Amino acid sequence: MTVADVVSTLHAWAPPGQKADFDRVGLQVGDPAAYVDRVLVALDLTPQVVDEAAEAGAQLIVTHHPLLFKPVGRVTANDPVGSLAWRLGRAGISYVAIHTNLDAARGGVSFALAEQLGIRDSQILAPLDGVMRKVVVFAPREAADAVRQALTEAGAGEIGDYRACSFTGDGTGRFRPEAGASPHLGMVGEDTEADEVRIEAVVPQWAVGAVRRAVAAAHPYEEPALDIYPLEGRATRQGYGVVGRLDAPERLPAFLARVRDALGAGALRYVGDDDQTVERVAVCGGAGLSFLPAALAAGADAYVTADVTYHRFFEALDTEGRPRMALVDAGHYETEAITERLIADRLRAEHPELAVDVTATRTSPMRTFTGA
Question: Gene3D superfamilies given for it (predicted)?
């Protein structure tokens, strides 16, 4: 197995096309053709993680947070980012990041966080907007099944919890092959009519290229008629955060204890009424404050995320200064540490022959002082 094989598995799960515009994901250091039989997974890349991988004989490290996040002008051994890249190169270890593309994936980071907190019936909190397309293919009737299968395998036709969704209508295709053509039907220079079907399916924008290639391979015509249209509205399978419910309502202090204990958080910062009841809960692993309006609109009693600054806590208050909901900052590392297991489990399921380890290193540099 190669580094490229592992990257392909990760990208099939969390396509890089669904990452945030500011993000950097995928293979960041190393050789895509390099052999791999052991992988180390971590939330962050640190010197300790690189040393751990080298000692274990891992040829590849996969992290959630990317090392090369901001533009890099040079790679030298005397700066924190460059020194890690230099250390990887010297050890012959390749390095891959799977960041906001995993945040936005169905079954991704926030889904794992919700499960960790005992939240049920999870749905995407903030679906991606403006990313869906409609693909329309015209094909002879006898090729319809093959074309539909190709669309499905390329990632088209996924709506919520349904796959292989499409619509097929009947029609008549007309064309005249010109000199140089090798028509599947008809003769060069003659007008031809064909019994055809119109096949329609939705597709995310990042899968359009794969859909074009799949149709070209499955379609009997040398020049398949294929249209792509932009769709208004939001995606049904991709987005940030989730919202769901607890098995039973509980008072806010009990809910906070649940979060603290489940995540191993030393402390929680929050806005909320200690007398309130919590049942409907929204979560977003990592820095998810930008989705607070979505959590409020979803009717969440509490929203668990991280990296909430002092002034932003005020956004959870109403015009009288009362909490509109409980806003809980449980820590960036704490809300995303589950990502290590999530990635490792995926790789183990897809590649049983691959040894996949989760780092023993707590990669967060932050500590909480609670007194003597």
Answer: 3.30.70.120, NIF3 (NGG1p interacting factor 3)-like
